[in-house]
Amino acid sequence: MEQFLSLTLGGVVSGSVYAAFALALVLIWRSTRIVNFAQGSMAAATTFIAVAVIDAGGSYWLALVVALLSGLVMGALIERVVIRPVEGGPELNAVIVTLGLFVAIQGIVALVAGVDERAFVPPFSKVGYEVREGFTLLSLSPNSIWTVAAVLVTMLALTALFRFTRVGLAMRASAFGQEVARLLGVRVGRMLTLGWALAAAVGALAGMLIAGDVSFVGPTFMDTLIVFGFVAAVLGGLDSPIGAVVGGLLLGLALNYVRGYLDDSLLGMASLVILVVVLLVRPGGLFSTTAARRA
Amino acid sequence: MAEPPHDRTTERPDRSPTARLEMSGIHVAFGGVTALEDVSLTVEPGQVHGLIGPNGAGKTTMFNVACGLVRPSSGRITWRGQELRRLRPAQLSKLGIARTLQGVALFPGMTVLENVMVGAHRHAKAGFFSALFAVPTADKDDERLRRRALDALAELDAVAYAERYPGSLPYPVQKRVALARALVAEPELLLLDEPASGLSEDEMHELGELIRVLCSRMSVLLVEHHMDLVMRVCDRITVLDSGKQIAVGTPEEIRADPAVTEAYLGDDVDVEADAAELSGGRHTAPAPAGTEEAPRG
Q1: Which end of chain B has less Cβ packing within 10 Å, N or C?
Q2: Does the model's pTM come out above 0.80?
Q3: Cβ of B90 and A177 within 8 Å?
């Protein structure tokens, strides 16, 4: 029972990190119908910027703000400069471009920051709370609470943005029909840039949370997250921010049970099995807006 | 980004003579195929102007020229004394021009109300970033947009569907919503692309009455197949055939024009139907008494 509780809580924590990453993928998918394979290395880059801020004497929180802002700028720039020319073209072009970005950004990070892994100190203690005399719940620590809370707040903020603001309305309209939105006076190009900027900022948050979780950073430290984040996003239907978060949490739980009851080495395979099963059984994902489509 | 504040009363278009759409000498070619050849058309302020012709005559091309989707190779478009030739579709709504699309083209994953709110986009006052971070002025703005959208839906009798998703509604209701989305921007010129397709006889009749009401506030350019509707609501009609303008005039003049009859009878597709439509649309159902005898004009 204690093991189950510990695994479940641990699953929620790692799941919320997958969720943050999936959120970033979903934001880009719903605005431009592109799967951004460069998300991981973009997040690694912003995390290294944060490390530079901390090295220069800044606090974790200053570094976090800088990471988020540099994510916004990087996302907007990449959309404007690299992605804009392939938008609306064949899907394969966009896939190749984001794969190329993935390698290129990783290379640049390695050139600038070096290939060595660096220690990363999380903002809160990672020592688990002692639930009762003699039983410490390892996976429930101040830092894990911060991780989960940050992701939940981000999801709620994004949902509110899409649902209750004019900009969110325009972003959704652009995602559903660019031509029609344009005729109605929506500045579609601007909305796409904003989508990428927001996504990169969420990705930057994911990078900071993961760095705190694993306590190190390196040019490739986000690579495995791409797989997990992608599976989480597909699980949630690729279209819905809430779906991404629920998908991330479900995946986190499933993988943690695999880790705890089976074996560590099965994680990669387990996530791929989940991906294949979802695509076979519910290709629209658990939370895609099939209600609207079906009707 | 922030537009100067204005309220609804000043927004109501004054029927100044400049609010006239003039298209003259329009040529369009698609890769060597001439789609339009020297076509001219003027929509007078407050009038309903029909654009008709057999299939493939170039109606939709002309329509797309009017809203900037197709750039003519030569010709002039003047709107409020302004040259529109290099216009981008995104600027249309700022200029007070709204269009509906063939079919309905509503956003599937957004409620009816949200769909219409997108149409009211240009009336928002708050700037981009204040809207993004939901500062109080932006909140008030959203509330105003919501009210406008509800007003537009009310005018088209569709308020009851505000929270529904378009896909779950009958087609005629979707068409009304699409029209509300165009009207909510309070345009001075409304471009209607086959608004009657898929409507029943009764619904088409209602649509005709609505268009007559609307033209007290705006000019209307109407592309439509249903001849009885065109004859009933239009003040003037331009007839195209094979990319050329073959007639322009009041409904009576068009009906009496031998060149028009010729064009419709010469069309291989649906010869009898077109001919019947031209003589008053009696082939589909008996038209209400008097409508074909006394068209507006």
Answers
A1: N
A2: no
A3: no
